[in-house]
Amino acid sequence: LFFPHSIQYQLRELTSSLMKKIKGIVDVSIKNGFSCLGAWLHQIHLINMDYALDDAFGYVEQGIIKWKQVVEFFAVLNLFANDDYFLRENNLLWIHSKISAIKNISHENTREEGYDAAYSEYLERYPNGTSKEDFTKNYNSSLGFLINENGEKPPSLKKLAEEFIDEYSALIDNNLFKSLENIDGKAFESMPTPADMDAMIADKRLIEREIPLNEFLKMCYEESQIMSHATGYMYFSNSGAWMSGQVLSIYIHKFSDVLFNKLLMLFQKLKSSGNVPDKIFINVIRNYQKKSKEIIGQIDGLIRIPKVRKKF
């Protein structure tokens, strides 16, 4: 009932097949003591299925509205992929989350014991770390759990997100976003078939446009910031932002592909030093990579098919 069109059914099936492979990586991560990694990879599963549902129901604006959270999620996970501490128990993150939750609920300063526990964990990680005063001040920021040995304040979420977009876009599609433009400037009233698409491209009724991928994704990030705040900010969002969200779902898959390449290199390094006891850990990631590129390519082709006009 939910996926009556063949294209939406194919998208759902292809997405589900990728998520099953990620679920295998989640299970192996938790088994090998990488509980934080397992929890975050499980979120990728939820994000992908959430976008698949939005696409199926035609909620294209949701793709933009949720994009800010998606980019910030991957930006933080990308930092975790540089250091296995963050992928294991990651107590600095858990304590930070608890302190933030208490502050949000009570609107009062958290008891000193919370910071004592965080600082104790910090010194266990960095025996020559900064003073408790400097630690507490910078640990209170949004990304305080990323505080380094020198006690420096972590970057803002926006700066981290933009740096992440630049880094990953350079590794995806040669940093090019390609779209098909209908030169008539009209949306399709019925779904075109692949043969229709080929004919329109041959007749130059559809023209392929290219723009820098990182600039496109940053624009969507800014639009998401505006649209996700249901106040006066929403008024200033571009009209096109309400219709372009569907294409973003493919970049969640492509982000994941780059991320798993990075994780594989980290785990191969850890394996050589004996810090990853189970070889199957590396094998499940390789198995994902063998299948992912073909499946992602199929999803990309389906998502880029021009859609019918949305009836407002």
Describe this protein's structure.
It is a single chain. This protein has 13 helices and two strands; from the N terminus they run αααααααααβαβααα. The chain is mostly helical. The protein has a two-stranded antiparallel sheet. It is globular and about 70 Å long. The protein starts with 5 loop residues before the first helix and ends in a 9-residue tail after the last helix. The model has no long low-confidence stretch (mean pLDDT 82).
Overall pLDDT, averaged? 82
Low-confidence stretches: none
Number of helices: 13
* Helix share, percent: 55-70%
Distance, first to last CA = 22 Å
Main structural class:
mainly alpha
Portion of residues in beta strands equals: under 5%
Give me the count of strands. 2
What series of H and E elements makes up the topology? HHHHHHHHHEHEHHH
Radius of gyration: 22 Å
Q: Strand order of the main beta sheet, please?
A: 1-2
| Shape category | globular
Main sheet characteristics: 2 strands, antiparallel
